[in-house]
Amino acid sequence: EARQSGTAKKYARVLQKWMKFNEEGYMGQPYDPMVFTIAKWWLFAGWMMNPAENNYKDPNVVRSAINRYMEDNGRERPVLGFSVAQVIKVFKMKMEDAKRERGEEVGLNRVPCPEAALLRVFELGEVVEGLQLRQVACQLLQLLGWFRAATVAGMQAGDVWFDANGNLNIWARHVKMRPELKEQPALLTIPPGTGYRHVRCRAFRILQRAFDRVPGWPTYLSSQVPPGRDDGAAAARIMTADLRELVSSVLQLPDGASVSSHSWREMAAVSGARAGHCMYRMSNRGLWRRIETMLQSYIRPFEHFPYSAVLAELYDDLSASAPMPLRVD
Questions:
Q1: I need a surface site. Which of 69, 261, 295, 329 has the fewest CB within 10 A?
Q2: Is it the case that residue 216 has pLDDT exceeding 90?
Q3: pLDDT at res. 301
Q4: Which sign does the torsion angle of CA 283, 169, 244, 309 carry?
């Protein structure tokens, strides 16, 4: 049976970790990637503890990729059994310990922000002043641009502005897996809604209010932390703490569920999918290299997310029929 192309590509990318580990080998001597032992699996798990190599991914995915690789080359699937599972268990415990040391939460299932969180941010943005207005504006910037917290932490003075046509323009300089944007930033141009009561117009009015009352708000986060600190985790901690303080009064989440700053990005992608917006435009907004990444990591895990007319309207500039914004310098 032919393997789905998306799955094949995913395993090919993951298998590169196993191949790189074998290529590095020991004291200049490479390992044979076709040879698997439990001792070698332990060594590989230790190698994966380096965040630069594993990006905190589940070694179960690598296990499956190695098994398929062996099978495709006429071997039995060797990465099986109790001992293999024990290595994975110890690996996960070590990674959780590392997260605790960095002050990150362990054992909670992150979910997309619900519509109620957005509406609460709107309510606050229309009345708060000072620090809270800066925090609200940065949360809106993140959810409108589908940004990670680290991208917001990379904002410089002048990177966010409204043009004469009412479009919101944003330079994105620090984007995960897109190092070229540090030298050639991506420009996002988001048009206003079609009328005063449009959801996106409401968001834009709050940002305009922030420019009037706290003009330097786009650098609220970057003035506290550089985007690359702790691989972006430091920026995420600040934005997550702000988000929870702002919306905790309206959140009703199931046991074991939580929201973080990244929940805005997940909310944007899955709500856009539920609304039937254009996947190509959505992927461009999120600055993903591949649409498959958005589908596999941001939409399929949250297919239970309910349709929201509010969120559909917020992102309706990404529908296939929406005109492209005309930017004015």
A1: 329
A2: yes
A3: 87
A4: negative
